[in-house]
Design goal:
It is built from 3 helices and 22 strands. Strands 4-7-3-2-1-9-8-19-20-10 form a 10-stranded mixed β-sheet. A hairpin with a 2-residue loop joins strand 16 and strand 17.
Length: 255
């Protein structure tokens, strides 16, 4: 079990491996970067310098405004159970235990290894991608039923930067109703939702409210609400996590 310190910068989870900084992105099927390899739990994973469409660490840094050395995608992440919070990430070869208060959401499908969960939005269950590389969540246009509350700039590798209206939409997670912020994908990207028969993407806003276990071994997402007072604003716009005393243990599975 390996644990790495992370930074939460502009909605992106950044992990340092081999003295290089990588975005942790469950929404990307592939990894790439300046380093030739990363080692997690004793397993060595090779990295190409360039991903699909000629994307490099230089291009992703320019688009995101962050100085990063690459991206760790699902071709690597799929081999582990992973615990995310705002200041560290843990990779386990065995199932991670979770508390009784945890909200467990089955991973009902994957597309190019990208996990899909079900969230209740607009009083119906919707297929939604879990994308830890998305600083902003997105919904299909028919679900954005409220008035926009503003605008936000985002980017996508193949089309560059863009601006979208943002909306507050209620999402039922377990027995809780969360008011989350969603945008509308540019027309060039909306076909991805249609092809995958999904209604949206949920991004790292969840990490401001929950520690998250992505169980690739047993196909679920587990959300543990942060205790009151664990998150607080720093310098007005940065969130800092006071480390939880989470006990990670092996969870026995039936043969």
């Amino acid at each position: 079990m390996d644990t790495f310190a992370t930074k939460f910068l502009d909605g992106h989870v950044i992990v340092q491996m081999n003295d290089l900084d990588y975005i942790v992105d469950t929404g990307s099927p592939v990894s790439f970067g300046r380093g030739t390899f990363v080692v997690i739990n004793g397993k060595r994973f090779s990295l190409n310098e360039t991903a699909m469409g000629g994307i490099t660490a230089t291009s992703i840094s320019a688009l995101s405004g962050l100085k990063v050395d690459g991206l760790i995608g699902m071709d690597i992440l799929m081999h582990f159970d992973i615990l995310f919070n705002l200041n560290q990430i843990t990779f386990s070869d065995t199932l991670l235990a979770y508390a009784d208060t945890t909200i467990k959401l089955p991973i009902i499908d994957t597309v190019m290894s990208i996990p899909i969960i079900t969230l209740n939005i607009g009083h119906k269950d919707r297929r939604i991608f879990f994308d830890s590389g998305a600083k902003l969540s997105y919904l299909s246009e028919d679900l954005l039923v409220s008035e926009p509350i503003g605008q936000m700039e985002d980017f996508y590798f193949t089309i560059g930067t863009y601006t979208t209206n943002i909306y507050k939409i209620d999402v039922t997670i377990g027995e809780k109703i969360e008011s989350l912020t969603f945008g509308l994908l540019p027309a060039a990207l909306r076909m991805m939702l249609d092809i995958s028969q999904t209604k949206g993407v949920i991004g790292t806003e969840l990490l401001k409210k929950y520690s998250i276990i992505l169980s690739n071994l047993n196909k679920y997402l587990a959300l543990e609400p942060y205790d009151e007072g664990e998150l607080h604003n720093s310098s007005g716009d940065k969130l800092r996590l006071v480390q939880k005393n989470l006990t990670l243990s092996r969870q026995l599975s039936l043969d």
